[in-house]
């Protein structure tokens, strides 16, 4: 794995790259990609950062694992490549956007368009072995992504953090809520959404109302 990450992030995270856990993580990921089919493609592992520089972050959405099916993962949480069927959680996200903002359901699930507007689509674990959910958990990625959240919380102000589901809420537990706007709800997965923990959260309009209030450009969801 080559750590080709966007320059502003490279500067912010340089201390992490020199820590022993990160070199162990790099060795593990390199071996996995050499010996197994893994996702996303190696040059897309850090796509979330390449499409959304540190300076541009306005909103952070925290996911868990990349999709582990063929051709799905593209380095952005909840996002899939063009031409790939939209997964159930993302279907529910688009349904909520349609209800909340009246935005028509999109033709594809590629969320690069959000990332380029300042939405950091951060999975807690950035790689996965094909068809084995969670296979790269507890190898160091979580420590790395905790450092990213902590750096954003400490060094920036007025970021909107969207924490959907129990895992994301725990991941975001150390965000400084006196400096940032944190919205929580159930996860958009069918299991949670169909129990009434997702639909109607109105997070997308709340994000845009907040951004407008602090004189930032709202997101075209």
Key traits:
221 residues; alpha/beta; 4-stranded parallel sheet; 10 helices; 11% strand; globular
Word description of this protein:
- The protein is of the alpha/beta class and 221 residues long.
- It has 10 helices and 6 strands; from the N terminus they run αααβαβααββαβαβαα.
- It has helices at residues 7-12, 14-17, 20-35, 47-50, 88-101, 112-115, 141-155, 166-171, 190-193, 203-213, and strands at residues 38-39, 59-63, 119-123, 128-129, 160-164, 181-185.
- A 4-stranded parallel sheet has the order 3-2-5-6. It has a two-stranded antiparallel sheet with strand order 1-4.
- Strand 5 (160-164), helix 8 and strand 6 (181-185) form a beta-alpha-beta unit.
- The longest helix is centred in the first third of the chain and has 16 residues, at 20-35.
- It is globular.
- The model has no long low-confidence stretch (mean pLDDT 96).
What's the layout of helices and strands?
Layout lengths: L6 H6 L1 H4 L2 H16 L2 E2 L7 H4 L8 E5 L24 H14 L10 H4 L3 E5 L4 E2 L11 H15 L4 E5 L1 H6 L9 E5 L4 H4 L9 H11 L8
Parallel strand pairs: 2-3, 2-5, 5-6
Antiparallel strand pairs: 1-4
Number of helices: 10
Number of strands: 6
- Give, in spatial order, the strands making up the sheet with the most strands: 3-2-5-6
Mean pLDDT across every amino acid position: 96
The best one-word shape is globular
Largest sheet, described in full?
4 strands, parallel
Cα radius of gyration in angstroms: 17 Å
User: Alpha-carbon distance between the termini?
Assistant: 32 Å
Helix content: 25-40%
Provide the succession of SSEs: HHHEHEHHEEHEHEHH
Query: Can you tell me the residue ranges where pLDDT is under 50 for at least 5 consecutive residues?
Result: none
User: In percent terms, what proportion of residues is strand?
Assistant: 5-15%
**Helix/strand/pairing category:** alpha/beta
């Amino acid at each position: 794995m080559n750590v080709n990450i966007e320059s502003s992030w490279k500067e912010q995270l340089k201390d992490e790259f020199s820590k022993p856990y990160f070199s162990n993580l790099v060795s593990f990921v390199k071996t996995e990609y050499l010996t197994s089919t893994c996702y996303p493609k190696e040059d897309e592992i850090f796509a979330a950062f390449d499409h959304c520089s540190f300076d541009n972050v306005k909103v952070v959405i925290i996911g868990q694992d990349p999709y582990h099916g063929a051709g799905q993962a593209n380095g952005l949480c909840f996002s899939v490549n063009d031409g790939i069927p939209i997964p159930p959680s993302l279907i529910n996200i688009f349904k909520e956007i349609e209800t909340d903002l009246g935005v028509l359901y999109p033709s594809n699930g590629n969320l690069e368009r959000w990332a380029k507007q300042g939405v950091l689509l951060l999975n807690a674990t950035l790689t996965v072995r094909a068809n084995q959910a969670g296979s790269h958990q507890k190898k160091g990625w979580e420590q790395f992504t905790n450092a990213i959240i902590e750096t954003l919380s400490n060094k920036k102000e007025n970021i909107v953090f969207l924490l959907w589901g129990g895992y994301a809420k725990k991941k975001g537990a150390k965000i400084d809520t006196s400096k940032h706007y944190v919205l929580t709800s159930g996860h958009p997965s069918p299991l949670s959404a169909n129990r009434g923990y997702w639909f109607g959260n109105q997070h997308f309009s709340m994000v845009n109302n907040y951004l407008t209030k602090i004189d930032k450009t709202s997101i075209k969801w």
